[in-house]
Amino acid sequence: MFKVDLGRGAELRPLEPWQAEEFLAHMDRARAFVDPWIAWASRSTTLQTARKTLQRYADLQARGEGRILGIWLDGVLVGGVMAFNFDAYADACEIGCWLEPAGTGRGLITQASARLIDWLVTERAVHRVEWHCRPDNVASSGVARRLGMTHEGTLRANFPWQGVRHDSQVWAVLAPEWSARKDSQSPGGAKSQSSGHEGSQLSGGAESQSSGREGSQLSGGAESQSPGPEGSQLSGLEESSGPRA
Ligand SMILES: CC(C)(COP(=O)(O)OP(=O)(O)OC[C@H]1O[C@@H](n2cnc3c(N)ncnc32)[C@H](O)[C@@H]1OP(=O)(O)O)[C@@H](O)C(=O)NCCC(=O)NCCS
Fold it and tell me: Distance, CA 106 to ligand 1 centroid (Å)?
């Protein structure tokens, strides 16, 4: 099965509708922690609604407009990362993330997000990867900072949560910045030698070919079907941007 080894017992893998039961059990552990920052946590409360959340991302992926990946730590689903709000005109998209408390403080999201950004920049030719978070979500802005993103500004009162409207910070990294960062972090500075958590892609590499019982390679989803940023749809996604992902 497709997976990326994040080290120390952690793996990044596709998260799909058939895993709704596992996702729901994880959400039950994560919901209180995640809910203030991501809207779908409070909408994934039953097997049906958990499956609906994953199906929504599966549909986005089939259209080349999104992707969700789970993070397993010692075989337990503890969080994930996702890409959404693809803008074909601007070659831009947004990424988001979440963890249950047991997964925090290990750098899992920084690593997983780096993998996702790398795939977006190198495979999907995305020029601008955004990260939206509430100003009081310092754990989230800490990840954006560690990823080398720039805080570009703050959207005022665009995230309503429990009757209160919150601001959203917009962070972003541009493709040339990401490439330069990879070069500076890879041994010898050569692009081809990228390694570590900043370096590799979510498709096609050796890491994606680990065998499962089925023996089949299950990747080749959005990345193989996607028409590239030029071909993907713009807005109009059911998902809204920012912390609401
Ligand atoms: C946002 C969230 C995912 C960040 O979790 P996190 O554990 O801080 O992020 P990471 O997985 O990147 O780990 C970073 C932490 O691990 C530490 N760490 C350990 N090893 C590390 C490594 N190899 N690389 C990077 N950080 C490492 C870092 O020092 C940092 O800890 P610190 O904040 O105490 O300094 C988490 O707080 C969360 O799920 N919040 C609720 C949902 C949410 O807010 N989502 C984002 C919406 S915008």
Answer: 7
Distance of CA 113 to the CA centre of its chain: 6
- Check if the beta carbon of residue 145 is closer than 8 Å to that of residue 165: no
How remote is the CA of residue 171 from the centroid of ligand 1, in Å?
Answer: 16
Contact 82, 96 (CB under 8 A): yes
**47-62 and 20-34 helices cross at what angle (nearest 10)?**
100
- Neighbour count for residue 220 (Cβ, 10 Å): 13
Q: Are strands 92-99 and 76-87 parallel, antiparallel or unpaired?
A: antiparallel
Question: Distance from CA of residue 62 to its chain's centroid?
Answer: 16
Cα–Cα distance list, 155 to 7, 94, 97, 168, 169 (Å): 36, 15, 19, 5, 6
Asked whether the predicted pLDDT for residue 243 surpasses 80, the reply is no
- The atom of ligand 1 lying closest to the CA of 143 is 12
CA distance 141 to 237: 24
pTM score: 0.83
* Ligand 1 close to Cβ of residue 170 (< 6 A): no
What architecture does CATH give domain 4-195? 3-Layer(aba) Sandwich (3.40)
Q: Strand 76-87: give its sheet, edge to edge.
A: 4-7, 10-14, 67-73, 76-87, 92-99, 128-133, 164-174, 150-161
**The pLDDT of residue 169 is above 70:** yes
Per-residue pLDDT tens over the stretch 51-92? 999 999 999 999 999 999 999 999 999 999 999 999 999 999
Give the distance (Å) from ligand 1 centre to CA of residue 54: 23
Atom of ligand 1 nearest to the CA of 140: 1
